[in-house]
Design brief:
Blueprint: H1 9-45, H2 51-68
Helix pairs in contact: 1-2
Length: 71
């Protein structure tokens, strides 16, 4: 009998748990970005913020989402 591979289950379980946590964090960041974007659009529509401020908020929200997802 030839052994093709030996899988260390505790290491695999930790990797799966870590991947699930990363997914949960990404989902939370995406939800926060959606909320910030919706609020800033409402403020812009009500003339409560300038287009420049709106652009800064949007850029910051998008930057937070993309940089946080990079290793």
């Amino acid at each position: 009998d030839d052994v093709l591979a030996i899988i260390d289950i505790p290491d695999l379980a930790r990797a799966v748990d870590s991947a699930r946590a990363n997914v949960e964090q990404a989902e939370a960041r995406a939800a926060n970005t959606r909320t910030l974007t919706q609020r800033s659009v409402q403020l812009l529509a009500a003339n409560s913020i300038s287009r420049a401020t709106w652009g800064e908020l949007l850029a910051a929200a998008l930057n937070t989402t993309t940089t946080a997802s990079q290793p």
